[in-house]
Amino acid sequence: MLQCIFLLSDSGEVMLEKQLTGHRVDRSICAWFWDQPDSFKSLPVIASPTHYLFQIVRDGITFLACTQVEMPPLMGIEFLCRVADVLSDYLGGLNEDLVKDNFIIVYELLDEMIDNGFPLTTEPNILREMIAPPNLVTKMLSVVTGNASNVSDTLPSGAGSCVPWRPTDPKYSSNEVYVDLVEEMDAIVNRDGELVKCEVYGEVQMSSQLTGFPDLTLSFANPSVLEDMRFHPCVRFRPWESHQLLSFVPPDGQFKLMSYMVKKLKNTPLYVKPQITSDSGTCRVSVLVGIRSDPGKTIESITLSFQLPHCVSSADLSSNHGTVTILSNKTCTWTIGRIPSDKTPCLSGTLALETGLERLHVYPTFKVGFKIMGIALSGLRIQKLDLQTIPPRLYKGFRAQTRAGDFDVRL
Amino acid sequence: MSPPAASQRYPSPSQPSGEVTDLKSQLRQLAGSRAPGVDDSKRDLFKKATSDIVLKKMCYLYVGNYAKGNPDLSLLTINFLQRDCKDQDPMIRGLALRSLCSLRVPNLVEYLVGPLGSGLKDNNSYVRTIAVTGVLKLYHISASTCIDADFPATLKSLMLHDSDAQVVSNCLSALQEIWSLEASHSEEACREKESLLSKPVIYYFLNRIKEFNEWAQCLILELAVKYVPSDSNDIFDIMNLLEDRLQHANGAIVLATVKVSLQLTLSMTDVHQQVYECIKSPLLTLVSSGSPEQSYAIFSHLHLLVVRAPFIFALDYKHFYCQYNEPSYVKKLKLEMLTAVANEGNTYEIVTELCEYAANVDIAIARESIRAVGKIALQQYDVNAIVDRLLQFLEMEKDYVTVETLVLVKDLLRKYPQWSHDCISVVADMSDAPYILENLIENWEEEHSAEVRLHLLTAAMKCFFKRPPETQKALGIALAAGMADFHQDVHDRALFYYRVLQYDVHVAERVVSPPKQAVSVFTDTQSSEIKDRIFDEFNSLSVIYQKPSYMFTDKEHRGPFEFSDEIGNISIAPEASSDIVPAQQFEANDKDLLLSTDEKDDNKGVSNNGSAYTAPSYDNSNISSQMQELAISPAPPRLFCESTGDNGLDSSTITDQTHAESFHSLHRIGWSIYKLQVFLLCLKGIRSIIKLSHRVCHKLFIGQGTDKIESGRAEYVSGIRHPI
Description:
- The complex is a heterodimer of chains A (411) and B (724).
- Chain A contains eight helices and 23 strands.
- By secondary structure, chain A is of the alpha+beta class.
- The longest helix of chain A is centred in the first third of the chain and has 19 residues, at 73-91.
- Chain A starts with a strand and ends with a strand.
- Chain B is an all-alpha fold.
- Chain B contains 42 helices and no strands.
- In chain B, α20 (347-358) runs antiparallel to α21.
- Classes of the chains: A alpha+beta (411), B mainly alpha (724).
- Chain A: It comes from Brassica carinata.
């Protein structure tokens, strides 16, 4: 199992080291790791001369775990992902300063999450009960009273209950439950303008503050569009198999109820028509963006970004709507916002190629970003959410949102 | 570790935060107390610390980290820890017990047994969980103490009767480890270990699998893999119990379930196929929903499955299209997947997609995708369209695209000689091949890579047989320069060519440039036996390295990758590649060969300074007249070793290869002239990048079967592949 976990800053400094077993892992492994060439270092699983290393990088922080024995690789990677999620949840983001300011929390969390190299509890709800997340109030308290404790005095009851994701008896004066459909559209448009792939990855996110032991049932109007579902452990399998009903006892607070895919969609809400013609060392670029199929709600925060090829020496690009920025690393971003009603946004300009090059042979890929509030592009609709016993003062809410995931338009 | 390391873990004074600075000052005191004579202050601090749980935790951490270095001092902490083990608060009891077991000081084990025993009987499950892990820690410090206290038996009863799932799963992991370590010298442990795999125990776990947390579920599924079912009903029962695990959000569980299902049904072919169908969509979802790191691990497994059953993903090939933002390690695996799933139905789409990557900004991926196109072309029967595409690549005039395409064209032509006309017509006339070669040879001294020089020699030879008058001079210079070369292989090859030419020009032609034969199948780089072994180790690191575990865990198989046990002297040469192995084998007979060839040279009066060979009189008749005087020296194995080894023949057979066999194999590696010309004319187009041409040169001219070694080497150069 895992022998040691290191957290490295983006300059390769070891910020934190947690030895898990009797076999100590020397820090020099981190130096070795950091000196590897980039293409090798970016691999999630690496064999060093002494250990096998698992690593993930989140917001510039490298989570590195070492082992010397055979183990399921995904277990190591999944665990590190979980650690990163929990830490960023606790610290409200991840960066060097946050980790350094909250060493104690991080150590406490790691202590509860893994013992002797074997993962224990990674359920955020339970951890939250054992170790209070840092917030302004506790910081104030510790300064004022001098009492530095952020550990709750009682042990989490969920740790021992038969529904491990839920504390035994939470009490709320007002009961609230919200369901969010969050979808991401992945699409590839090839050089001929054909839609090669278009699918939606969606999540049902919930936020529940319910008293007692609620038993919920969520149903969809059109569950048949869903493919490849993945459920939170609280979802009962049988009702879904037989009636496509999500029946569950929810965790307390925010959680991801399920994720799903909807494949083989026919249309993207936007079209992007790029054109590049090159002749005797200069290229003319023109990109048109417009609405292909109106989703019924406003498409917001439209952006288009692409990497200029290395052989481009200078670029002069302008647009009739929105702003164009070109960074020093040759990333060009065109922020459009909303599509105006009176004109079609168009980016145009010229690229000068390096001397000696007549024509452009390497073409950029355009990445499209957008956001649509209030609608799920997959067409999935929530029918209703039932509670077995209805608590007093219950608020239920639904919301939907779609944004672009990996939406590539190739040229 | 030295005390400064402790302060390193805490932030610098420039970023104070109430809690941390307070703690830091206290821990500084603690660090100071390590000096002899100030033990009292340490004790004081511990007293103070007991009032605050966070401070306590940090003290435990500190003590745990440094106890090993100062076993005597850590004795002082035992008292406090033991007292804490009896605290009212279960959390403190648990923490103290965990720290006590984490001290890992052998002479303190006697203090562990008592608290552990009561910890295992504690009425709070949190404490029991920690105590169970503590038993395992104790076992690693002192196995005999652990066994004497009869802890394994206690764990076993806890495992079967405790109400808390976490306690049960910790018992399972602890017992597995203890018994498998004990099994080597205790029959009882052996029996116990097997009893874990008995039907009641397995069902006991599988029936309540949903109660366990996700990591414990992984552990149970791993246990279930080892279970040998009694009959088919047994298999179906287990499969039913595990059905919904495939839908779990944790990828580790899904993969473990897949492994159980695949292993259970190995004997039942039709069910096995159904299993493939069932696991397909959960795996594909995992790939698209997880982080890139997770995708990487899953893709490695998918790749394994695809190789065994290409049909299952044949319709889902669009999942493996690369998105622009993905990290290159994922893209690379996706390209491999696309290659593997290509069949008659989807080749057109896949190749179209791959061709788009060739113009991609990411050069490494562009290269890989061209290679993938080539692999598909070699698998398929209908290659018309693909050849057209490849020819378009040549027109792109990007150096790396041209290089990769040429290598592919070489392989394709070997399989489909009929396409050669098309290819050659693209590169038009071929009249100045000898002159380009001449240029290269004139710059012999500037060519640093021995590999390239070797292939220049071969190229000059081949060109000579096709167009003797024009190449003769260049060949003379090349042979002379070759024999004067300081590199042993180059020297030997030049000498070999020289002698073959002397012996008989026609024999030489047969050896160096034999008539080409179409190749039907290129050998796979991995044997099916190895693939099966990797499949048996599904859901392990083996899959990611694409090697069975014995190859990277056994010392003998580690090859050039030296695993030292001391971390201090980590040293790895990333260049260490597969070609090291043959080179080492030749070292043994290197010395006497060197002597013998030199001696022979002297005896026969062949001077190495080269002037003799550049003389205009050096022609065929001259050679044949000398032929009588100079017989080819019998069996200088090194000459053949070098060339055959390089060409990917089994190196173990090389050393005892007889003369005739060597000729035979050289015959097989021959390469015909038109490919040389294809190359040379392309070279004309990209003359400005002459450096790069060396790679093409050595890739193109090396003969048959070089794919593996060559592409490996090339990838080290371009930094794509890694020596694992």
